[in-house]
Amino acid sequence: MPVTTLNGRSVHVNDEGFLTEYDEWDEDLAKVLAANIGVDLTDAHWKVIHFLREDYKAQGETPTTRRVQQVAGIPIKEQFVLFPKKPGRKMSYIAGVPKPHGCV
Amino acid sequence: MKRLLVLGGGTAGTMAVNKLRPRLSPQEWKITVVDPDEVHYYQPGYLFIPFGIYQPDEVRKPRKRFLPSGVDLVTTEVDRVVPEENHVLLTDGVRLDYDYLIIATGTTPRPDQTPGMDDESVWRDSVHEFYTFEGACALAEKLRGWDGGRLVVHITEMPIKCPVAPLEFTFLADAFFTEQGMRDRVEITYVTPLEGAFTKPVASRYLGDMLDERKIALEPDFMVERIDPETKTLVSYDEREIGFDLLVTVPLNMGSDMVARSGLGDDLNYVAVDKETLLSKKYDNIFAIGDASDIPASKAGSVAHFAMDLFPENFLRHVQGLAMHEKFDGHANCFIETGHGKGLLIDFNYETEPLPGKYPLPGIGPFSLLKETEMNHWGKVMFRWIYWNILLEGKELPVPALMSMAGKIREDV
Known about the structure:
The structure holds 2 protein chains of 2 kinds. By secondary structure, chain A is mostly helical. Chain A has one domain (3-95). Chain A is 49% helix and 8% strand. Chain A has helices at residues 27-36, 43-59, 65-72, 76-82, 87-95, and strands spanning 3-6, 9-12. Chain A has a two-stranded antiparallel ribbon with strand order 1-2. In chain A, α1 (27-36) runs antiparallel to α5 and α2 crosses α5. Chain A starts with a strand and ends in a 9-residue tail after the last helix. The mean pLDDT of chain A is 91. By secondary structure, chain B is an alpha/beta fold. Chain B is 23% helix and 26% strand. In chain B, the strands form 8 sheets. Chain B has a 5-stranded parallel β-sheet, with no helix packed on it. A 5-stranded parallel β-sheet of chain B has the order 11-18-12-13-14. In chain B, β7 (87-90) and β8 form a beta hairpin. Chain B is globular, with a radius of gyration of 21 Å. The termini of chain B are far apart. The A-B interface holds A 64-67, 70-71, 76-77, 79-80, 84-86, 101-104 and B 157-159, 163, 193-195, 199-200, 221, 223, 225, 237-238, 266-268, 296-299, 332, 348, 353.
């Protein structure tokens, strides 16, 4: 896996720029990742990101937008407002977890 | 006497009992299949019914015919599994005890999950699907009398059963309207929640080019929120709108509600299992096979077939208290009909995306991967016979269960 420098330190990423090491993530890094894709983080964003982190840790899998709606109670409509166009992809990128597998 | 109970007598459930019955002593094991439907459908054939290529009777046969002797069939609906007590309750109140349970209840299109989709003013009139026998037949009727307009082919959300089928439908529709001499009166748009034509980059590029060549518009990243039955419009969560005269949608796919009632399902009613052995993550005497499980592979008969090549050995070891050695890799291959008597073939697994090359013999084929050929089309045509006569009965096909890189060509995206 390639290594890149974000926020002054080295982190492991895949070829799409997603962090590959769960523990290399912290909130400062999330701000840099969010800025990379033009997202300004508000409390509502953090709520989604923290849910993704916790759910991934518990389930071993990135929750889908449907699961974020059902389990965290954040409507898909709102997820689209917070992370325009591609919520599933954008929120997992910022949260430092794998892109939810679209399944083949 | 030990009791093996199999819920669902579709592709996976039927293959499983055909492979297990000869290897489990009849003196020691009683095997029962529960499925409320007495008909076994050849689901890959649904795709051809709307275009009159297959007739309805070519895709259905009595279920009983494909179950081996020594396997009982109970045609009652399952109410729920009570896993703590090792029994299953049927809707007629009957209780079936088990020592081992195999859940093979598949996945089903659920138009009721998208507001407006099954509104009676549009459902099976201007809004259709082809993933059920009734739906495929209704669409055949519709296409026979349709004089053109805006055709929208649409996927609600992944995962769906046979993820290439909506593309095949689109290619076949293009060919069908061309042959009817009315292609210039039909505007075709392919609407998908994915970033491109398909889930994986190399295949997505090939298939995207094929949509282009056929003058089919692609609308990616479209997550439908609702359908407006009055204006006949698809509306996305980010407020894009796509109007249609005829919508052929793939509704949200969900596992059986029985799985949810049993407390065994995830948010789409799929049973959480180990992706290599298909053993439930919660219960040591429950497996989920075929589309009913949550393995990150295609929901497809092909995946069920390759998984069933490895499953019986694992099952036999597991019931003897031995470790399971066979590890399923998510192998699938699918013929993709592209119209005018040609087809494509893709072969892939959990880790390796579909790549070009030859299959199954490296350099020889006879099938070509990710390339349109007549041979691939004949492969698909022959497959119906193979399904009824070889596959369901659990006989071996001369192709390996695990995916091989031999014959595949890696390329940069």
